[in-house]
Amino acid sequence: AGRKRLQAAAQLGWPTLPARTLPAAAPESHCLLVALYDNACCRGFNLREQAFLARRLLDHWDRATVMGQYLPYLGLPPSAAHLDRLLLVSQLAPPFLELGARGRLALNAAAALAQWPAADQIAVLPFLQELPFSQSKQKQFLEDVGLLARREGVSPRQVLDRQEIRQYL
To answer: Based on C-alpha coordinates, what's the Rg of the chain?
Structure first.
């Protein structure tokens, strides 16, 4: 916790900065909570951070505790549905997590995408990177591609590889 404060102090030319450190023997769970509380009071969390923290919190606490006590610090309602979506998102490949970090991938769309096979996920990446989808349009796009794929008995990747779809890129 405090990386950005250290960078700001260095840019200001400050030679020293007061700091508090945790003892080396501090449990990982305490360090995690320090980072959570410190960042929750100063800024919000992006989707990548929310997914990472949800997964890490579950390493130390049960689902009910994570939902009730910690999801609100992440800016989310204390519900099982939100926790489950975050856990799905945490399984996505780094390019999708980066989109989430930049606010270009919504939680609902990311959770839906996480349930697709990896090859289909990669096929949709250029569309999510290049097209200016709103949050609701991201989910709608994925649903429509999935519907077309099921209707025609092909994979979403095969739908997305079509020239008439790729032309929008």
So the answer is: 20
Closest CA to 88 of 124, 67, 112, 64: 112
pLDDT 10s digits, 85-102: 999 999 999 999 999 999
Q: How many CB atoms lie within 10 A of CB 124?
A: 21
Burial of 13 (0-12, 13-18, 19+ CB in 10 A): exposed
Tell me the C-alpha distance between 97 and 90, whole Å. Answer: 8
Contact 147, 156 (CB under 8 A): no
- Quote the CA–CA distance of 169 and 165 in Å, as a whole number: 8
Q: What whole-number distance in Å separates Cα of residue 147 and Cα of residue 141?
A: 10
Global confidence as pTM: 0.85
Structure tokens at 17: 């900065």
Please give the residue that has the higher pLDDT: either 38 or 156: 156
Could you give the C-alpha distances from 102 to 68, 106, 112, 134, 165, in angstroms and in order?
A: 27, 10, 18, 13, 25
Q: How far is it, in rounded angstroms, from Cα 127 to Cα 109?
A: 13
